[in-house]
TrEMBL record:
This is SUEL-type lectin domain-containing protein. PANTHER family: PROTEIN EVA-1 (PTHR46780). It comes from Sinocyclocheilus anshuiensis. PROSITE patterns: SUEL_LECTIN (PS50228). The keyword Repeat applies. GO terms for molecular function: carbohydrate binding. Gene3D superfamilies: 2.60.120.740. Signal peptide: none annotated. InterPro entries: Lectin_gal-bd_dom, Lectin_gal-bd_sf. It comes from the Eukaryota. Keywords: Lectin, Repeat.
Length: 121
């Protein structure tokens, strides 16, 4: 497989998850719409220009700001659902960096919701 470089100059990695279906098992998939799959999430600030309009520079300077519960909160509210809403606020995620203007970044995809039926052969 060949991949393009989506972010020049930034370290990248490839994570692959798989499982082996024992021989003699056949999967039957029934498509039933799409649902949200959360790849990553962060409430905080990792970029000084994102959501910066009208903000004083002091509120944008800290760019290593991560709420440690971001992935858990977003996944519990959105994973496997057809739609969701998460409030981007300190009351939901706590305040990972006092005095910094924060935003919620979510990387997600919409995937087929399917029911898998396996039968021995």
């Amino acid at each position: 497989m060949v991949f393009t470089d989506p972010c020049f100059g930034i370290y990248k990695y490839l994570a692959i998850s798989y499982f082996c279906v024992p021989s003699g098992i056949r999967e039957y998939l029934l498509n039933d719409g799409t649902v949200i799959h959360i790849h990553s999430a962060n409430y905080g600030r990792t970029d000084s220009s994102m959501c910066s309009t009208g903000r004083p520079p002091a509120q944008l300077a800290k760019i290593d700001c991560y709420a440690l519960n971001s992935q858990t909160v977003v996944a519990s509210g959105c994973e496997g659902k057809s739609s969701c809403s998460i409030l981007a606020s300190n009351s939901v995620f706590s305040d990972p960096c006092f005095g910094t203007f924060k935003y919620l970044y979510i990387s997600y995809s919409c995937v087929s919701k399917c029911k898998c039926y396996c039968t021995e052969q």
